[in-house]
Design goal:
This protein is mainly alpha-helical. It is 49% helix and 6% strand. The chain contains five helices and two strands; from the N terminus they run αααββαα. A two-stranded antiparallel sheet has the order 1-2. The longest helix is centred in the first third of the chain and has 37 residues. The chain starts with 7 loop residues before the first helix and ends in a 13-residue tail after the last helix. The model has no long low-confidence stretch (mean pLDDT 91).
Length: 168
């Protein structure tokens, strides 16, 4: 769509309007991307991960851990999944729309932090199980493409789609 502007002020006003729309589009893309990483992280917990990402494949549970899980009435071999509390502790925080948007995906549960990073204590060793970082790595390109597509729509003056990426 070609636009002609009679004054420089008209052109600047158009750019200012598009700038706000782009901020909203990037914010929407960041929200969708953060939700995708959160969802995939939650889905991965309880499973062994394999792939080319750093830290993979994840180590099998130690025999002592399997024995403890059975003794406590949990399934024997679902890493990180006992009651589901740790999995459900993951969430998303996102800043307001603006020129810079920040998104945080993670958990305030210390068990989730230790699960992700591992514990290197000699008598209490736990290998890292990088659920969150793997989910972020695996979705990076999809998220960047989605943010770009939404930003282009905003620059062109097109409305953002009502349906968010991943919605059915």
């Amino acid at each position: 769509m070609v636009r002609n502007f009679k004054t420089i002020e008209g052109f600047i006003g158009h750019l200012a309007t598009r700038g706000l729309a782009i901020d909203v589009a990037v914010h929407r893309g960041m929200e969708e991307g953060a939700a995708l990483i959160e969802r995939d992280t939650k889905e991965q917990i309880g499973h062994y991960l394999d792939g080319p990402e750093p830290g993979l494949p994840t180590a099998p549970l130690a025999d002592s851990t399997i024995d403890e899980r059975i003794r406590l009435g949990f399934t024997p071999d679902d890493p990180g999944l006992r009651t589901g509390d740790m999995r459900e502790s993951y969430g998303v925080r996102i800043s307001e729309a603006g020129p810079v948007v920040h998104a945080s995906i993670g958990s305030d549960d210390i068990k989730a932090v230790v699960f992700e990073l591992g514990r290197m204590e000699q008598k209490n060793y736990q290998p890292p199980r990088p659920e969150l970082s793997v989910a972020a790595f695996r979705n990076e390109h999809k998220i960047v493409r989605r943010i770009g597509a939404l930003a282009v729509r905003a620059m062109c003056g097109l409305p953002l789609p009502n349906q968010r990426e991943g919605d059915e």
